[in-house]
Amino acid sequence: MMKIFNKIINTPDKKKLFSNFVSLAVLQAANYILPLVTFPYLVRVLGVEKFGLLAFATATVTYFQILTDYGFNLSATRDISIHRENKEKVQEIFSSVMVIKFGLLILSFFLLTILILSFDKFRKDWEVFVLSFGMVVGQVLFPVWFFQGMEKMKYITILNIFAKLLFTIAIFVFVKEQADYWKVPLLNSLGFIMAGVLALWIVSRDYKISFIFPSIKAVKHQLIEGWHIFISTVGINMYKQNSIFVLGIFTDDTVVGYFSIAKKIMDLVNSLNGVVSQSIYPYTMMKMSSKYIYGFLKKVGMIIALYTSIIGLILLVFSDAITKLLAGNVYYQTLLSIKLLAFVPLFIGINVPAVHILLGNKKDALFTRAVILGGLLDLLLNFLIVPFFSYIGSCTSVILTEIAVTSILYKYALEVIHYDYKEKETI
User: Fold this and answer.
1) 386: closest CA among 267, 258, 237, 249?
2) Dmax of the chain from CA atoms?
3) How big is the chain by its Cα radius of gyration, in Å?
4) pTM of the model
5) Degrees to nearest 5, angle at CA 60 with 45 and 335
6) Phi, psi of 150 (to 5 degrees)
7) InterPro entries, from UniProt (predicted)?
8) Which label site among 114, 259, 351, 368 has the fewest CB atoms less than 10 Å from its CB?
9) d(Cα 357, Cα 293) in Å, to the nearest integer?
């Protein structure tokens, strides 16, 4: 068995790829296990209404996380990966990205303040939204893109598990009754911020990278590099967050709570797809010109399709038991949402090869176009359907959007592959 395993990872690149996969797999295992510990507890202690409020607040600040990320988790990762042996260049990239992210953080807090002052929906629970904003601060501090570019996923794993473990323990210690609901975003934010501070310390200690004042040219370069991916990230997260955000606008916190339980389960499954995508991303960017890379991505897509189909069947058949286990009761609204969304992770997961083909071939604009179309479609569907069909409308918009995005991404990816093969034949 060990001989077969050693043959599979018989090169330094494959060993590094496997190491990164294991690191992210461990992280995602923690992402599965720890929320499964706190999630049922919070639903029972806080009740569906307060759980829905927290979900609505999280969906709101996620838009600010998208803004401050600015696509750097892909664009800056690519830059760091290419220049990792050049310390001066890495320091320039690091400083430029951090300057932009802090500028966007200030802008985000300003926009949140306007939102709270302008709408009663946000003003009546303003403390929850402000405390939730600490997650944005923590995310700005944590240079995930740096560690991904350096292919040192273990740091991402260790620090994230530390933050989540701290949050999990704190939930059981400090959240004892419904009136403690405001402590949940506070504790979550503190975990994010602590992990971010430790991450910056590791960057300084292990890589001897310190902040320098970057040139305007360097900052401008990062803004241009990240632009297409930022716009595409806006599109992706629009149709990931719109469902809860729009549902929160047109319904009450209780309905949002019912739907959020089902959405939380889907997010846990989708995080497994994230492991695969993040693990192979630096590898595929470096090897995109290799003749076997399309075959490699095809195999990845088949593996994803297999396990997401199995998970989908499990969710469909055992939705009653899953709802009872996680929520304490079999809420009809949650049960139906789980059944409707059971195979959504399949459509999201099989997008991974297409996304890597487009980004690896520098077709960022096509990737952007696909997800922006998806985001706009989702927004349109949510505003057209949710006011009349509530959470059923949310589920419908998610399903139709994911099918549409998958179709568009593969249309573009197949065009890129066809052109690439044609060009090689000509040469």
Assistant:
1) 249
2) 70
3) 21
4) 0.73
5) 50
6) -80, -5
7) Poly_Biosynth_Transport (IPR050833), Polysacc_synth (IPR002797)
8) 114
9) 9
SS3 content of the chain, % helix, strand, coil (to 5): 90, 0, 10
Which amino acid is present at 224?
Answer: I
Question: Rounded to an integer, what distance in angstroms lies between the CA atom of residue 140 and that of residue 407?
Answer: 33
Residues 6+ apart with CB under 8 A from 421: none
The DSSP secondary structure of 214-252, one letter per residue, reads --HHHHHHHHHHHHHHHHHHHHHHHHHHHHHHHHHHHS-
Give the tens place of pLDDT for each residue, 2-51. 454 454 455 566 666 666 666 666 666 666 577 667 888 888 899 888 98
Q: Coil, helix or strand for 10?
A: coil
DSSP result, 329-391: S--HHHHHHHHHHTTHHHHHHTTHHHHHHHHHTT-HHHHHHHHHHHHHHHHHHHHHHHHHHHH
Q: Environment class of residue 426 by beta-carbon count within 10 Å: exposed (0-12), middle (13-18) or buried (19+)?
A: exposed
- The residue type of 90 is V
Q: Return the amino acid letter for 6.
A: N
* DSSP one-letter code for 1: -
* Domains of the chain, residue spans: 17-426
DSSP classification of residue 133: T
- Exposure string for 57-87, b = 16+ CB within 10 A, e = fewer: bbbbbbbbbbbbbbbbbbbbbbbbbebbeee
